[in-house]
Structure formats: structure tokens, C-alpha cells
Amino acid sequence: MIKKTFYIIFALFIFSIVYLNYFGVSTNKFNQNIEKKFRENYPGVNLNLNNVKVLLNISKLSIDLKTENPIIFSSKEEIKLKKVSTTYDLKSFFKKEFTIKNLLIDSKKNQIKKIIKLARSFKDSPQLLIIDKIIKSGNIEILTRLNFDENGKLLEDEYEILANINSLSIELFNKQKIDNISGNIKYTQSKIEINNLKYNYVDLELYSKNVFISQKNKQYFVKGDLDTNEGAIPESAAKFFLKNEFFKNIILSSQNNFSFNISKKFKISELKLVSKINLKKAEYEFNNSSIKKYIPDFKKKIIFSNQTININYEKKILFEGSGKFQIGEKKDDIRYNFEFDKKDTKFNIDFDIKEIPFKIGIINFLKNDDEIANLKITGERKNKELFLKKLNLEKNSDKIEFNDIVFSKDFQIKSFNKIDLQYLDSSKKKNDILVVQNNENNFLIQGSNFNLSKIIDQILFEDTNKAKLFDHKERSFKINFKKNNIDDEHHVLNLKGDFKMKGNDIYDLSLNSSFPNKDILSMSIKTKNDQKVTTFYSEQAKPFVKKYKFVKGFEGGKIDFYSVKENQVSKSQIKIFEFSLMELPALTKILTLASLQGIADILSGDGVGFDELEMNFNSKKNLMEIEELYAIGPAISILMDGYVQKDELVSLRGTLVPATTINKFVGSIPILGDILVGKKTGEGVFGVSFKLKGQPKDIKTSVNPIKTLTPRFITRTLEKIKRTN
User: Fold this and answer.
1) Which helix (H) or strand (E) holds 392?
2) Pairwise CA distance, residues 468 & 686, whole Å
3) In CA terms, which of 89, 190, 306, 548 is 20 to 30 Å from 111?
């Protein structure tokens, strides 16, 4: 009986052990003990447990305890958990040691702010305070595995925290926000691993597969990747990262790998970044009227497309790429690399220009649609100044080369070493010009052939005061050319001289040349006591007057110009001698309206000849005031005054008288008439007065016959007749 009872008890014992080992039992007898130990180790934090399930682990002589849906209370906050489990060491129990060896806490979804407050209640730190300040909202699920020593202290190198974050929003101290953060975090042995991280920064969606954070020499080492899928970049992100508002409609994808150290005060150091950007499209919009002068198709926009860009950052940024750029409807290729080092930038840019037409108007250079050109630019930006070491443009056998040009922060030339131009211009004229620096501020300009046509056009028709090409320094230039074209029909030989500049102002100049028939051409500028005197003389006026397109059939003539400029006001006089006009639209209209058809017919034949034209005028900015324009010839004489507001308004008035009328009038003057024109008779004095007024392209003309000449007209005519006789 005793033996049978023993076997039954032994069987029940074995059964109980097996049952406890595999199935366990639920009880609340351990709750108070666990909750008490928890409060002892973490004051201010309470653990509320439900029934605990007990499982016997016979192989390890321990009891596994597990409870579901417990709650942790800290201050007024509560953290809801899925389950808590631990291992209760039986040997330690009998030795009266701390019997809990590990603890697993699996939380439900809780607000991150509550978790941070709980962590601060365990062990507060400046880092946790900063994290608490920058985090605004978000949810987290945490799985925590903790291990304890025999005294119940947490083994800091033997714990693991797994977290799943979503809807996290933080605000940095510079007020920048990062929203919609989600991802998985693994924290173990002072190492953090973040997987499948997604977030929104300045409206840009960013992704990261892996980010690793480890502690190193009292700071943290961070390494990871960061990608963007192909898509449109929000304008707010473009403005933030590119620091301007010019780039728009950006479509790209990128792959980025980075690493850096971060101190406990969140100071970043030893940053390294490797990026590959596939730029599908980006529009660079800016309004620059100067570009239109060089690229006719430019419409305030350059489009970059199919660009592959590689960026490498380690103390300095290496930036290289290639792809297409588009102006108007035409596309061409571009290659580039930049090196950014603190405030300095080095760059190389290489353009293959096949489709896009462009021109350099001042030197009459043109690349047509069917021509191929290559442009290379090498330089650096240093101390807010731009250094172009080399700018080289090649087209067929044409070459345009600039060496060692230094620009100020206002993009004005401070110095340069050499300019070499060898090309066939749009008029099929050969050009070669070399500008070299003799010493610091002295230069030599020389060449065998150079077409001055466009430069003369610019002087005559454009406001050269707007061009601020050079900085404020004084410079001296010596000129020596064998041949210079003035237009398609005229050229001069042996143009020599020199000029001096201060900034962009030529204050001293002396040039001399001659036409092939030895006719003289000269120009001078002299400045004294803030007064600039300019003279120009040419024994051939036609190549200069014909630049004014409204003058048709100008022949012959000599031109003499004199001007004094002081306080931005120019007082000038121009004289043209012995010339004829085939057509002058306004004059033709006056003659027709005045019914002087005979003279009008002459204009359509051999032209109207003039002995002399003299014009006295004042100029200030865009306003030219004509004090007097007087022309006298065998057929007609004209006296006129008024003003011209450039591109806005023309207002002129004057008197036109046929030469026969003048002769009759002069012949009627006693004694003087006999001397000047002999005995003449005829009808009374007559002519026309006229007015020209309106916008330059829409000038209205009015004409009235007159029977009496003005004293001023009579005086000017008599003066002229006396001088000629």
C-alpha cells in the first residue's frame, strides 16, 4: 500500500512537473512580489499586472512568468502593454538573491511623448530633455528585452529594444519640421539600427533602408542611406536646398550614402556623403536681357534634362555631371564638375553646341544652326571674385580664347592676361586680334584684320554708359592694326594709337588711320578739369552716315565732329560737307506735301546735293536737344530745331526753302544782291514750314507754305553765302 501510494504521488509529481513545464497555471500570487520589486528598482513608476501564467522550465531550474495587458503608470501617464514576461530563478530564490533574471515587455501602440516621460522617470538626462522638446507627436510600439544581475541591476550590455514608429513629427531648434516619420528601430548594446525609415522634410518624401548609430569615443557614429523615388520636387524643397527661387519643375530620383559623428550636444562632425542624382528635368528661370544678345532663342528659361550627377562630400564637395540643356526648342550637351571648399569654388564646364545658335554681336561672331561649336570654361570663385583661367570657344577653324580673367564680385573685369580671337565673321570677313598684358595695367591690342562694323554700330546706336565692363582701375592700351573693315564696302589701313581708361571711362585717346586712297581718318579724346573734348574727322563720311538706315543713297561728303562733355551733359557740333542724298523719308514727304514735286523727283533720281550740313545739339542721358540743324545746297536749304527722346518721342520743326527762292531774295538786296548773284528778277519769296512729331516709328508730318522767311533763316543763309564766296 505504501509503495503504491508512493508511485501515485511520484506520478502526480511528474505529471505536475510536466504539466507546469508545458501548460503552466495562471495565478496572481506573484503579482505583489513583482510589482514591489519593480517599485523598489524604479521609484515613481508602478506596474499593474493581471493574472500571471506560470511555466516551469525544469532544464534551467527556473519559472517563466507571463502576464498579458498590464499597465505601467508614471505620474499621470499610463503605458499600455501587450504582455510582460520574466524568468524566475529557483536557485537564486533559495539563496535569497534577486530572482528575476530577465524581463520582456511588449507594448501596445502608445504616444511617444508618454514613453519619453517614462524614460526620464527612470533616468533623466540632457539628451532625453532635448528629445522631449523636439518631438511634437507620434506613436510607437516597443518590444523590450532586459537582463539583470544577481543584485537586480540592469545589465547595460545585455538588453535589446525593438520599436516601430509611425506618424512621428519633430521640430528642430531652427524651426524646421520633419513630419510623417515611420520606421523600425533596434537598440542593443549602445547601438541603434533603423530600418525602412520614411519621413517628410520640407515637403519632400525621403526613404532610408538602413541607418546605424553606435557610440564611439563619447560621441555617436551615424552611417546609413537616404533615397528619393523619381518624382516632382516641391517648390518649397527646391527653395530650401538650392537657396534660390530660380529652379522650378524639378523631377529627379537620388541614392545617397552618408556617415558622420554627432556629439551629445547634437554637433555634427566628420560628415561624409556620396550621392547619385538622376535629374530627369529642371527648369532654370531668370530674366537677363543680356543673354538674348548672345543666344537669340533664349526666352528667360534654360531646361536641364537627363542629367546624371555624382556628389562626393568629405571636407569639400566634389560635384560632377553630364546631360542635356535646352534653350528654346533646341537641345545640346553639357559636362561639368565643381569643387566646393568652404567659400571657394573650382569648376570646369564643357559645352557641345550643335543645335543652339548663338552670336557675339560686338565682334560679329555667329554660330548657325548647322554648325558645331565647343565651349570650355575653367575657373574658380575665390573671396567673392571670379577667376576664369581659360575660356575657349572653337567652331570649325575659328578660335576665341580668354586667359586669366579676374572678375570682381560685381562681375567687372579686374585684370586679364590674354585675349586671342581668330575667326571668320558673319560677313565672311577674316578677323585676328590679340590683346596681351605688357605689365600690370598696360595692354597691347594688335592684329592683321579686324571688322569694326559692329563696334561702330554700338557706339552710334547703343547706350555705352550702361556697359560696366571694367572695375575702377586706370588702364592704358596701345593699338596697332594693319586693316580694319568699317562696313562691307569700306576699310581703313594702319590704324594706330593709344587710349587710357579709368574704370569704364575713356578719358584720353588718339587714333589715326587712312583709307586706301589716302583719305584721312582720325579721332581724339582729351580730358582736363572734368571736361572731356571729343573730335572725329573723316574725309569719307559715307561709311559712317550710311549706318543710319533711314538715310538712303548718301554719297560723297566729309565729316567733322566736335563735342564737349561736362557734368554728364554733352554740347556737340557735327558738320558734313559736299554730299548728296537719294532718299530721306521725312524730307521726301515734306517736299511732296508742299507740292515741290520737282525737288521731290530729284530725290528719286541722282539725289539732292548739299554743300554743307551743320548741327549743334546737346545730349543728356536719353534726351538730345537740337539747337540748330542747317543745311544748304544748290537745290534746297533747311533750318530746323527740336528734340529727340530716345525710343519715346521726336519733336522737330523747321523751314525748307528751294534755292531759286534764296537766289531771288538775295538778288533783290541792293548792291549785295548784284555782287552775290548778279541782276535777277522773279516772283516773291516763298518756302514751307514743317513740323515732325510722334513716336520714332510713327512720326506725323505737317507742312505750311510761307511767303516770308524768318530773320534767323536769312541770317544763316547770308553767313553761309559770304563764307563760300
Assistant:
1) strand 385-395
2) 52
3) 190
